[in-house]
Structure formats: C-alpha cells, structure tokens
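User: structure tokens for this one?
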Amino acid sequence: MKINKYNNFKNVSGSVLRDLRQKANISQQELAQKLQLEGINLTAKEISKIETNNRLVQDFELFAFAKIFNVSTDIFNSKNG
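Assistant:
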C-alpha cells in the first residue's frame, strides 16, 4: 500500500528544512543552487512545496539537505526539529 500523506502532511521535514535555511540566511534559490552542486535538481518552487509540506521528499534529497546544512538526517524526524 502506497502512503502519500501522514497526518495530512506530505512530509514532516519541511518545517525543519525551512528553519535550517532561514538560520543559514539563504534563499530558496540559493539552496537550489547548492543542491545542484550535489547533483540534486530541485527548483526554488519545489523547495517551497517541501517547506510547506505540499511535496514528498526523497531520501536522497534529505541526505543532500543534511550535507549542505552540516546536520544529521535525524533532525528531519520531527515537525518541530
């Protein structure tokens, strides 16, 4: 059975990603550029959808986010970070 939502969210890591990005003082466009250097092609619009819990997040994307922000992937386990 395929699960597309969890408690009405498409992901539980979006708010954590937004907080990390804002603390690093980078825009969604700048994050998209950093992701491209890691081989992940996401647009600023797709990052916005992730941050607002309107897009599913792939595991390899989480690994790239963790690498860019120098954090453990465990931080993405919670909506609260």
